[in-house]
Amino acid sequence: MQKITREQLIEKAAALLAGGTVTAVLGWSKGEFDYDVTPAVFHTAEELNKDFVWNDFCGANFSKYLVAKAAKEEGKVLVFLKPCDTYSFNQLLTEHRFDREKVYAVGIPCEGMADIAKIKEICGEGISSIDCGEKIAVTTIYEDEPVMIDAKDVLAERCVNCKSKKHVAYDELMGEEGTVIDSARFDEVAKIEAMTPDERFAFWQNELSRCIRCNACRDACPACTCEKCVFDNPNSGVENKAPANSFEEKMFHIIRAFHVAGRCTDCGECSRVCPQNIPLHLLNRKFIKDMNEFYGEYQAGEEVGTRAPLVNYTTGDIEPGEVFDRRDTDA
Amino acid sequence: MRKCSLDSVNSVFAEIAKAAALYIPADRTDGSAVYTKWEEGVVWSKALNTVRSPKDFFFPQMENLMEFRTSGKNIEIVDTRSEAEDFVVFGVRACDVKSFEILDRVFLTDPVDSYYATKREHGAIISMACTRPSETCFCKTFGIDPAEPAGDISCWKTETELFFQSNTEKGAALLAKLEGVTEECTEEAVDAQKEKINAVMAKLPLADVTTEGFGGGKTKDYFNDPAWDELSEACLGCGTCTFVCPTCQCYDIKDFNTGKGVIRYRCWDSCMYSEFTRMAHGNNRLTQKERFRQRFMHKLVYYPENNDGLFSCVGCGRCLAKCPISMNIVKVMKKIGGENK
Amino acid sequence: MQVKEYKPLIVAFCCNWCSYAGADLAGNNRLNYPADVKIIRVPCSCRVNPMFVLRAFQRGADGVIICGCHPGDCHYTSGNYFTRRRMAALFSMLDYLGIEKERTRVEWVSAAEGAKFAATMNDFASTVAALGENKRLEDLRCKK
Amino acid sequence: MNNRTETLIPKIGVITDVRIDTPDIKTFRVVTPDGKKAFDHRPGQCAMLSIPGVGEAMFSITSSPTNTEYMEFSIKKCGCVTEWLHQAEVGQNITIRGPYGNPFPVDDVFAGKNLLFIAGGVGLAPLRSVINYCRHYRDRYGDIDIVYGSRSKDDLLDYKEIIDEWAADTGVNVHLTIDNPQEGWDGHVGFVPNYVKELNFDTNKTAVLCGPPIMIKFTLEGLCGLGFDKTQIYTTLELRMKCGVGKCGRCNVGSKYVCKEGPVFRCDELDELPSEY
């Protein structure tokens, strides 16, 4: 259950609209069921009252939408940012992808988002309603009584390993400021690192072979804001619409992860949107973990204007060959 | 009608697999179901449906069409297809079976697409009546009865037994081969099962979605609807909906230079992609709104106009479940259709 | 029939200012290194995009080595420092995906180090040869 | 399986002649390796040409169906396929498949009518096939007027053929124009739409338009201004195509596939389609 209520957010947005501070509100719009929430732009209080939602399924990171919407809207755009979204927000500002003056950012605390797949694992298909109270009450068409689920048990992976409840950017903050969390987000990476090369290869072969190259990971990623992706450009020589074989699957994901390395804030959108449940965050976290180990702790988006590790250097950097030596001696 | 007990379903699979490759829905490591080639040890999934639709078997995401060998100014065209082999797809839901009719009307109308036609000839479909539809299901909207799936053989599953009914010559021949592992039976249990399914269908949250107002000849009514702006506002332009869709059939033909020759292949394409209609001198669909509109207009207006009113959607619910931003055909139908009623 | 000895195909990206000249020197001094090392001259080692490395593997390379000026000696002042970071990250990722780490290497070779160039190539080629053909990052379409 | 037509597998075509028409347009003569015409076609139809590894693209067949020996394609350099073709030499193999699309209704609607052809730039390419077809069966048609404009004298396609053959025919009137004055040009100067208005044609004609979209738009307005009805005017559309047989799903305008139901459309039919071309 979220600490801030839907009504509080509507009230805030309506006041800012009425006061003329903003002309549009980027928010979550309700869907057919209680969990299929769609990002939407609201312009009036009526629209907000009708369709605006804030619940445990508002996972979408709005930062990337600002690139298009801030440029499109005439006035300022109000955006609600969860703590993890604020990192992407800063990162996009660092890269000059939108005009800060066009945005009014309201930080909202987040207690973690629920993963509908995990809920369905517990109560099966046929959900008729979900009530996000103290416990999540899920009613299905097959049972008379709702199934009561502890929100902790169905948290999305990225929220289980939440790295920070702290808002690193906002014009206004609702609720209390959180803190950076000492998360266990690299544990999974370390587990894979500890496997033998053969096991690692088999693991990733199994995961990446599911890729259908729908590009959802790329299109949802707040770090992927190239005007024209190399994988869409017919003149690049690597453009393709289907993963032709295991090489192309790997190439797409290695290059994508590499291109966002140092800029990826680990918001977890890639894994959330993947229709084939590929744990793409494990690729990004590998880069983050490596760079933290090689070049010192760095969190993309923590501050505006910082230099990412891959566009920086020191004269005493570790040699590519030593990377393995060090790990091998550690092991 | 014939039946077997659920405990002995593996012997049925084994019997089918003797003569043809058999694909059944099986759970994979991430928890979702996928059509998997059956062999001893592969377990039939309890999931309602697979993430990817069975259109893959007839219209794969990628298939080689031909090869070119070039030397100097000369080109040689090599047809690289090998002899097609028979295969059986088991556990296809009523909605997905219907999708083959929709694909057939595209690929089997003159001029016939031989790549697709060959696979259709060699493939047999064993369909499966639904037992636990999901909230995302809305096949009834398109006149599909999940209790009466088509296909070469239809199956019904009860708590303990599996029932078989052949619908085509191909199905009858296949069922005849299963005589040793199935037994003759009456239809009572199946009728009871059908009633059960129908009772569930009425309770589904999307039971009231209607195609009323859509169909051929409606282009002018909907094309300039201002609601397209709002609906497409959040669309990321990814291809998820088109790639999980059992009826999306747009494709691209591309060449791959291997260094030793050129492979010409075809792969799925998505009208959601910005490159979809790009030409040397420009693009006629410049924004995501136009691409988004194309997809739904095609399914709800253009396709029925060219195909006797048949809609190019079967209500399988895959796009509802998989869209990263939860925008889908149901929301579009309710918005655009609702406004224009 | 005699079995043909397996010879790995090595792609070496060499910086124009140091390593390429180093390769030249190795040649002038008649130093032996495997003929299956295909040298691609790049203006600076940091010109090597991760895509180059992957596509070399796609097109049939069994090992990829990147040679540049010694750190501090870059013709463009700092190019090879970036190479060092990028390739450390990339190679670590390839290893993470289970691709043999011995197939990739970065080596600093100056224009005066013809002998080092030849020795490096001999060593790298024999390491890769011991691994056998590149199977984990191959594109079968290119292998027919 | 042999009775099946393999729609996606092309035939080999050999370029037997390359004619440089303008600085950026060349005309290619194509036959099969045994020297025959690859397939029969009707005026206005298209063919898919490709170079393996470069791409496949749709081109209108420039030569008349009455030419039974070879096909010609006038191609302007504008994308990767066309650029490659422009470098090709005589003897180069390409692949060809077709014919695709609906032809102009030369044998029914056009029969007995006075015809007015209006083209701009490389837009003459698809019309040349119709014009030559109509000239071949001259007695079936009434007067023929041809309005053709281009950027400059050098950019006029088939200039020699137009002057030597078309203009020499009885009952064929050729009106040429270029966009800007040029030394050595004593003909008309001005844009095609304006020239059409100046020529003030009577409406007892069936008009066929082809050219850049902007020219089509204004010429159409001009013709309507002269009193033409949209049912008297035909044009051709072009969109990205991959299969040519109405299956790959990208060249549709509304429910019509340009590769199947087009590329020839009557202008009143276009009004029925959504404005997405």
Characterization of the model:
- The complex is a heterotetramer of chains A (331), B (341), C (144) and D (277).
- Chain A has 331 residues and is α/β, with parallel strands linked by helices.
- Helix content of chain A is 37%, strand content 12%.
- In chain A, the strands form two sheets. In chain A, strands 1, 2, 3, 4, 5 and 9 form a six-stranded mixed beta sheet that branches.
- In chain A, a hairpin with a 6-residue loop joins β7 and β8.
- In chain A, 48% of the residues are buried.
- Chain B has 341 residues and is an alpha+beta fold.
- Chain B is built from eleven helices and 14 strands.
- Chain B has helices at residues 9-19, 94-107, 114-122, 169-177, 188-203, 219-223, 227-232, 240-244, 288-306, 318-322, 329-339, and strands at residues 2-5, 21-27, 33-37, 62-71, 74-78, 87-93, 123-128, 153-157, 161-166, 183-184, 251-257, 262-268, 278-279, 282-283.
- Chain B has an eight-stranded mixed beta sheet with strand order 3-2-6-7-8-9-1-10, with helices on both faces. Chain B has a four-stranded antiparallel beta sheet with strand order 5-4-12-11, with no helix packed on it. In chain B, strands 13-14 form a two-stranded antiparallel sheet.
- The model of chain B has no long low-confidence stretch (mean pLDDT 90).
- Helix content of chain D is 20%, strand content 30%.
- In chain D, α3 (159-166) links the parallel β8 (144-150) and β9.
- The mean pLDDT of chain D is 85.
- Chains in contact: A-B, A-C, B-C, B-D.
- At the A-B interface, β2 and α9 of A face α8, β11, β12 and α11 of B.
Classify the secondary structure makeup of chain B into a structural class: alpha+beta
Oligomer: heterotetramer
Portion in strands of chain C: 15-25%
Q: Mean pLDDT of chain C, nearest integer?
A: 92
CATH class of chain C: Alpha Beta
Low-confidence stretches of chain C: none
Describe what is shown at a glance.
By secondary structure, chain B is an alpha+beta fold. Chain B has helices at residues 9-19, 94-107, 114-122, 169-177, 188-203, 219-223, 227-232, 240-244, 288-306, 318-322, 329-339; strands at 2-5, 21-27, 33-37, 62-71, 74-78, 87-93, 123-128, 153-157, 161-166, 183-184, 251-257, 262-268, 278-279, 282-283. Chain C has a single domain (10-133), classed as Rossmann fold, CATH 3.40.50.
Topology (SSEs and partners):
The complex is a heterotetramer of chains A (331), B (341), C (144) and D (277).
Chain A: H1 6-18, E1 24-29, E2 38-42, H2 45-51, E3 52-53, H3 63-72, E4 77-81, H4 83-94, E5 103-107, H5 116-123, E6 127-132, E7 136-140, E8 147-149, H6 157-160, E9 172-173, H7 187-193, H8 197-208, H9 216-220, H10 246-260, H11 269-273, H12 281-295, H13 320-330
Parallel strand pairs in A: 1-4, 4-5, 5-9
Antiparallel strand pairs in A: 1-2, 1-3, 6-7, 7-8
Chain C: E1 10-15, H1 19-28, E2 37-42, H2 50-58, E3 63-68, H3 79-96, E4 104-108, H4 114-131
Parallel strand pairs in C: 1-2, 1-3, 3-4
Helix pairs in contact in C: 1-4
Chain D: E1 11-22, E2 25-31, E3 46-51, E4 55-60, E5 71-76, H1 80-87, E6 93-100, E7 115-120, H2 124-136, E8 144-150, H3 159-166, E9 172-178, E10 188-189, H4 192-199, E11 206-210, H5 213-225, E12 233-236, E13 252-253, E14 256-257, E15 264-266, H6 267-272
Helix pairs in contact in D: 4-5
